[in-house]
Amino acid sequence: FQVLGSSGKLYTCYSSCHFCTCPAFGFTVLQKSESLLCKHILAVYLSQAMGACQELTVSEEQLTNILLADEEDEG
């Protein structure tokens, strides 16, 4: 899932493995173990429960660009 953050930045959330690319997830969830999830993963779970997810079909090239953009943001 891609979730638009409050800053206007898109974050990629993997609900199947409970992971988000946002800095808050990395710090609060992974490093500090102070929380179970970030607000972006919560938004995914809530939107799924409410049936409010917008599903888009993307090409392999588009998916590659999404994943590489996340990797570049981290590096």
From TrEMBL:
GO (cellular component) term, any one: Shu complex
Keyword Metal-binding: yes
GO molecular function, one term: zinc ion binding
Protein's name according to its UniProt entry: ZSWM7 protein
PANTHER family hit by this protein: ZINC FINGER SWIM DOMAIN-CONTAINING PROTEIN 7 (PTHR28498:SF1)
Keyword Amino-acid biosynthesis in record: no
Residue intervals of the SWIM-type domain: 11-49
Organism of derivation: Probosciger aterrimus
Keywords: Metal-binding, Zinc, Zinc-finger
One GO BP: double-strand break repair via homologous recombination
Residue stretches spanning the membrane: none
A Pfam family this chain is assigned to: SWIM
